[in-house]
Amino acid sequence: MTLIGTIGTDLQKQTTTTGKEYLKYAIAVNSRTKAGDSVSWFNIACFSPNQIDFMERNLAKGSKIYLEAEAKNTSYEKEDGTKSFSLMLFQSNFEVLLAIVVIAVAGFPEPKHELVLVRDDFSAEYALETTSDSAELLQQPIAVWELRDDRAVHLGSILPDSEEEEAHKRDSDEHPRVNI
């Protein structure tokens, strides 16, 4: 089975009853039809030590990936003692399509804001949380990095927008787009 979707949960490293480590997460897959948009969620388990290491170091909730996996029905016991079944996808391969990069800005105590790098043409889209410091953050230069072949590459910086563009941003429901 192949999927393209967004990691929708934190990556959780767990251990089986036999002592084998694996990475557990969920992926959201968007579908667009004439009837409207929908989202399907899939539970993923990754047992490859190399993939686990790479994913833990470089991916986070919100990263978009291409995933190859084998689907299996699994059973588990609920808290009330009843047996239940779920579909689990066992990851065999993946590729990063979109990486979430946590950015640090001078004057801010810890990186809370994320930059999403989109395509190979280096266009980028970023979304700021609605916080009291968001307006101040937009007045600061932000470094932009992309993950390439297991290393971070500096692409440039996002410079503060003019006041007119800021007013448009405040009135817009969409996230701003930044071309690098």
UniProtKB/TrEMBL annotation:
Alphabetized UniProt keyword annotations: DNA-binding
Skewed-composition ranges (Basic and acidic residues): 166-180
Protein origin, superkingdom: Eukaryota
MF terms (GO), sorted A to Z: single-stranded DNA binding
Pfam families on file: SSB (PF00436)
InterPro entries associated with the record: NA-bd_OB-fold, Primosome_PriB/ssb
Gene3D superfamilies to which the protein is assigned, alphabetical: Nucleic acid-binding proteins
Disordered as annotated region, ranges: 158-180
Keyword DNA-binding: yes
Keyword hit for DNA-binding: yes
Alphabetized SUPFAM superfamilies for the sequence: Nucleic acid-binding proteins
Protein name stated in the entry: Single-stranded DNA-binding protein
Species name: Pichia membranifaciens
